[in-house]
Design a protein that fits this description.
By secondary structure, this protein is an alpha/beta fold. It contains nine helices and 15 strands. It is globular and about 60 Å long. It binds tryptophan. Residues 51, 59, 162-163, 165-166, 210, 217, 220-221, 256, 284, 286 line the site of tryptophan.
Length: 323
């Protein structure tokens, strides 16, 4: 009988950083900004799950269908008795698709939230009795030394969700380079990295995906302000800000903003921040790639695009990178 592995191991480099400090800093800049990693508190995670179900937001269902459809080929790439390392413990539905077909010896989810990891680990331990689960609490964007799982034959990284697009290209290359190092790089033990990438497409389609009719994306974006009110006692008037998310076809990215509808000031931790009418707070970018531009990005990070799987409409790509 396997014991239930609910011990979350904190890796070096873990630091829950301070929402207040980052917000004060971001709102003091000439171009105001709020770092996007603060989207995902409990309410933000709930709203993001709702985004993933929206008719306009094709990404989640397209990637999930690609995983289901190509799992046997992916399994051949990864090989038996391996270890899967997931950067950011995401949707259980996606990892289950891999676990069912790849049948790895171990699964190592890395996530900043120990509570979230605990939940994921408990659920999977019950569903996959023979699986060696090794939850690591760490910021997956940091340089992490992840020791290979004893007894596993090789390992593969998994980074779904198109999250790579939320990093500027230079930062994305740095992240891919660090993931390569964490997985063992040129070492034969490192089989590769399976990564989800949202593709360049019709701007109208992209616009709709980030400006849904039901307003869930707007609520998700504004949750940053709501969170500042809840956790830090700020006094943002949520109705006085508009969600604005245009697609920039030259830079090939969706740019997310919160725009002050009228002149106003907000108080946060005893400091006053003034907003001119129409002034924008930048919250996130979502960069889109072509298969070629992504291959180039990967190459800058020491990876080779060895295989790719796309849906019939070329909306989304699952890329398999090798060292
Ligand atoms: N990773 C998601 C993406 O880029 C995040 C996201 C979806 C998002 N919709 C959003 C971020 C709206 C901010 C606002 O698609």
């Amino acid at each position: 009988m396997m014991d239930t592995p609910c011990t979350v191991v904190p890796l070096a480099g873990t630091r829950e950083d301070d929402f207040a400090q980052c917000l004060l800093h971001g709102l003091s800049r000439p171009q105001k900004e709020i770092p996007c990693k603060y989207f995902y508190d409990e309410e933000g995670s709930r709203l993001f799950d709702a985004i993933c179900e929206l008719p306009e937001y094709y990404q989640t269902r397209t990637e999930t269908a690609l995983l289901a459809r190509h799992a046997p080929e992916i399994a051949r790439r990864i090989g038996p008795q391996s270890e899967i390392v997931e950067f950011g413990a995401g949707a259980l539905k996606k990892i289950r698709l891999l676990l069912d077909v790849v049948r790895p010896r171990g699964y190592t989810p890395i996530d900043i939230s120990g509570d979230y990891l605990m939940g994921v680990t408990r659920t999977l331990a019950a569903e996959y009795p023979g699986l060696n689960l090794r939850p690591l609490a760490a910021d997956f964007t940091a340089a992490l030394a992840v020791p290979p799982l004893p007894g596993a034959h090789g390992r593969a990284g998994f980074f779904p969700g198109g999250t790579i697009g939320n990093f500027r290209p230079e930062a994305a290359a740095g992240l891919l380079r660090r993931m390569r190092a964490s997985l063992g790089g040129a070492n034969a033990h490192c089989k590769g990295l399976l990564i989800g990438v949202d593709l360049v497409k019709d701007p109208a389609r992209l616009h709709a995906a980030y400006n849904d009719a039901a307003g869930v994306t707007a609520a998700f974006n504004k949750n940053l302000l709501a969170r500042a009110n809840r956790e830090l006692g700020a006094d943002f008037d949520l109705d006085a800000f508009a969600h604005y998310a245009p697609y920039n076809p030259v830079a090939r990215r969706v740019e997310m903003y919160l725009v002050a509808q009228a002149r106003q000031s907000v108080t946060l931790r005893g400091r006053r921040f003034d907003f001119a009418a129409g002034e924008a707070v930048h919250t996130e970018d979502s960069h889109k790639y072509t298969p070629d531009s992504f291959a180039e990005l990967a190459a800058n990070a020491g990876w080779r695009l060895a295989e790719q799987w796309r849906d019939a409409e070329d909306l989304f790509m699952l890329a398999w990178l090798e060292s």
